Amino acid sequence: MDTSYVTENKKSRERLRRLVSNISDSELELVIYQEGWTIAAALGHLAFWDERRRVMLKIWKQKGVAPSPYIEDIANDALIPLLLAIPPRKAAELAVLTAEALDKELEELSPEMIAAIEALKERHALNRGIHRKMHLDEIEVLLKSKR
Fold first, then answer.
1. What would the mean pLDDT of 132-140 be, rounded to a whole number?
2. Is 0.85 topped by the overall pTM?
3. Mean pLDDT computed over 15-25
4. Homologous superfamily of domain range 4-146
5. In whole angstroms, what is the distance from residue 14 CA to residue 16 CA?
6. Segment 62-117, tens digit of pLDDT
7. Which long-range contacts (C-beta less than 8 Å, at least 24 apart) are formed by 5-10?
8. Is 1 exposed, middle or buried (0-12, 13-18, 19+ CB in 10 A)?
9. What does each C-alpha distance from 112 to 1, 64, 90 come to in angstroms?
């Protein structure tokens, strides 16, 4: 059973916390993706996907582990107007709070639950650091170009 995801999640969560505590409100409104996503929307996106994973963990604990419906592109497209409507600082704070809550739950999983989730072969199911790192890297590149 591989629990290296705990370390990766912690690293990405701490990186997220540092970024959110050091970013200005005006920087949160910088557009990072051509679809109109701001940095705040990207952070809200992270909060949504971490929260979705928390919901999946709850379902798996109640009903057993099974493949989860994969609706990434549809969800992202549908969410962007909502994410952009959230005040930027609130979206940033939600990203940190959700990461903290999810990582705590992931750290407390039983070995049996971890093994069942690993059997799904879903890279992001346990290691949320993969997803967070991708967006944090992109955000930091944009911030360096603007500062």
1. 97
2. no
3. 98
4. dinb family like domain (1.20.120.450)
5. 5
6. 999 988 776 777 788 778 888 999 999 999 999 999 999 999 999 999 999 999 99
7. 5/106, 5/126, 5/127, 5/128, 5/129, 6/103, 6/106, 6/107, 8/127, 8/128, 8/129, 8/130, 9/99, 9/102, 9/103, 9/106, 9/107, 9/127, 9/128, 9/129, 10/103
8. exposed
9. 9, 11, 36
